[in-house]
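Figure S7 source data.
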Amino acid sequence: MKKLFITAVLSACCGAGALAMTEAQIDSCVNDLVGRMTLDEKIGQLNQRSGFGYVPEMAGLVRTGGVGSILNETDPEVVNKLQREAVENSRLHIPLVFARDVIHGFKTIFPIPLGQAASWNPALVEEGSRIAADEASSVGIRWTFSPMVDVARDPRWGRMAEGYGEDTYLTAVMGVAAVKGYQGDDLSAPNTMAACAKHFAAYGASESGRDYNTTWIPELQLHETYLPPFKAAADAGAATFMCSFNDINGVPSSGNKVLLRDILRDSWGFDGVMVSDWGSIDQMIPHGFSHDLREAARQGIEAGVDIDMESYAYCSHLRDLVEKGEVKEADLDPLVANVLRLKYRLGLFENPYVDMTTASRFYAPASLDAARRAVEESAILLSNSGILPIKNSKVSKIAVIGPMADAAYDQAGTWSFDLEKDRCVTPLAALREMYGKESVIYVPGLEHSRDNSTKGFAAAVEAARNADVVVYFGGEEAVLSGEAHCRVDLSLPGAQSALLDELKSAGKPVVLVIQAGRSLAIAHEAETADATVFCFHGGTMTGPALANLISGKANFSGRCPVSFPRMSGQVPIYYNRKNTGRPAQDMTLINDIPLEAGQTSTGCTSYYLDAGDGPLFPFGYGLSYTTFSYSEPKLSASQIDTDGSLNVSCTVTNTGEVEGSEVAQLYIRDHVGSLVRPVRELRGFEKVTLKPGESREVTFTLNPDDLAFFIAPGRKIVEPGEFSVWVSPNSAEGNPVKFNVVENSLTLAK
Ligand code: BGC
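C-alpha cells for the predicted beta-D-glucopyranose complex:
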C-alpha cells in the first residue's frame, strides 16, 4: 500500500508513470526533481559511499539524502532496508543505486575478461555478462563497474587480467558485447545492471606496467589506440563511465576537462554518469595536481566527474565552495541530472526494491553450462606433439601434478569478490570424474604457485614414473594479478619450472596446463612439455571445461588476445607495431654469436640479441585438434576510392578429422602513409564451427573508417596508396592480397 502511495506521488511529480519511460519523460522528471532539490540534496547525489550494513550512520545519511549511491552492499535485506530509508523516509524519495565490481560473474564466475577475449566470441561475452547481471541484480546490485576496456600491452601490469588484451578492435568488440549483456534491451528491467566503461582513459598504458603509474601518450596515439573502445562502449549505450587513476601527459583523469568534457560529452555526446575511481579525486593531491581536498573537489566538478567515490571531497567541500562562489550551484545541476537520469533509466523510481521472492538467484544449471563453455572456448592450445587429446582408451594412469590442479580459490582469478570457492570444480575433481578416480594419481609437488621448496619433487617424479602421462597444472595464483598486483618477472613463479624439468626427466609425456591472469614468458616450459595449454583464470567451471578439452570431448578454439613474450624484457609487446627503418631480418640469438664478433657482424636490425624478434606466440594464435585451410582472399575490387568500401571473402575449410572452430581474422596494412602505419591491424574476425571436410565462406566489409587513421585528434582520413589485406589464422601467418586506394577527395571518414 505504502509502495503504491509513493509510486503515485513520484508519478505525479514526474508526470510519468509507465514502467519504461521515454527519454523525454525522463528528462522532464529529472529537471523537475533538480529544480526542487536543496544544495545538500544535490551534493548527496554526487556522493558515493562503500556499504557497511544497515547501521545508524548509513541509514541516517540515506534518510537525509546525503548519499546517492552505495557500493559493495550485497545482502538483499540490507539493500532493501537502506532503499526503504531513501524511498520512503527521505524528503524527495530518490532511490539509491547499489553498485559492485561484478567483473567476470557474480556467484557463477566466468573466465577473467582476458580469458573471455581469448574466446574471440562476443556472443559468449554477452551471455556471461547477462548471467552476471541476473545474479547480481537478484541481490539488488544494479550497477557494475565493468567492462574494463583499457588496451593493455604490458603483461607486467596486473590489471591486464581485467581487460580484453592488447588490441583496440578486439577490446572494442568485447566491451560492446559486455555492455549489451549487462544492460540488456531494456535497462529498466529489474534484472539488468548499468555497465561502466573504465578506466577513462589509457590506464592500461601505465608506464613500465606498474599500477597507477603515469602515462605519457601522444595525442594521436591516444585517439587511435586507447580511446576507440571507450567510444564504442558509449555508442553501445554504456550507462556510465569511470575515470582512471593515472595522469595522462601530466593531468590526472579526475581533473581532466579535455577528456571528460570535450571528448566524452561534447564530441561523443555521452549523457550518462561519470564516476571517479576509488579515492581518485583525493589522489590528485599526491599526484601533485591539487593542493588539498577542497581544491581537488573543485577540479573534479570542473572536469565533470559526476560522482565522488570514496574521496569524501564533494560531501566535505562542495557546500563551502558554492557558498564562497568558487563553484556555482548551477554548475552542479547537470552532474546531479546525470545521476538522476541513471536512476530513471534503471527504473529505480518505479521498482526500487529487491523482490525477495526471487532474490539470490545463483548457479542456474544453464549458467554453469555457459560458464563451462566459456572456459572451453577461451583455453588456448599453444603446442601439441599429438599427446593431446588423452583418450580414455589410450591411458590407464594419469599423474596429475602441480599447484593449480586443485586450487579452487585461485582458479577463479582476480576480482572474484563474491566467490564461493566450494562451488568451483577443480581440474583434479573433473579429471577424476572423467577418467575414474583409480586412474588419477595426484601429487601436487608444490603447495602453491610461488612455492620454492623442492621437498615435494621426489613424490611428484615417482607419480610421473608410475603413470602413462603427466598433466601438470601450474601458473599463477589469483593474487598475482589484478589491481596493484604487478610483476616484473613474467616467468612461472616459484620452483615450477624446475619441477617441470624433473617431471620430464621421468620419461613420460608431459602436458603443461597453465592458469594465469596474464601472458607469461614460458619459452623453456613450452619447449619442454609435449603439449601446452594456456587457460586464463577460468572461474567456477574451469575443471570440467579443461577435462573436456584434455580428453577431446571438446575442441580447443581459444586464440591469444595478447602476444606472448619469449622473455620478460620484451614487453611491452604487441603485434600491430611499426616496422622501423631497420626491421629484423633474422633471429640471431646470443648463444650463436662468436667470441669477439665484430660490432656490425650480427646485422644492424631491430631485434634482441637474446630473444630475437617477435613473440613466442603471436596475437591471434591457437591450435585445435583439427586443422584448417584458407583460400586466397577474394576482393570485390582491386581498386577503390578513398571513400569506397570493399568486400573481402575467404573460404575456410576444416581439413582434419574432427569438428572444430576456427577464428578467421581480417588484418590490413596501409603500406605508405603521411604518418607511418602499423605492420598489421585487426579489422574483423569471425569464429566458424566446421565439421571435418566442411567449408564456409567468411566475408568482411572494409569501410573507409577501417582504412582511415587519425591525422589530428578527432580527424581520420583515408590516404590513397597500396594496402594489403589478410584473412588469416593469426597475426603472423597468411598471405596478403593487395589493393589500391585512389584519390577521390581526402575523405573524412568520421
Ligand atoms: C578500481 C576500480 C573499481 C573500484 C571500486 C578501484 O580501486 O580501480 O576498477 O571499480 O576500485 O571497487
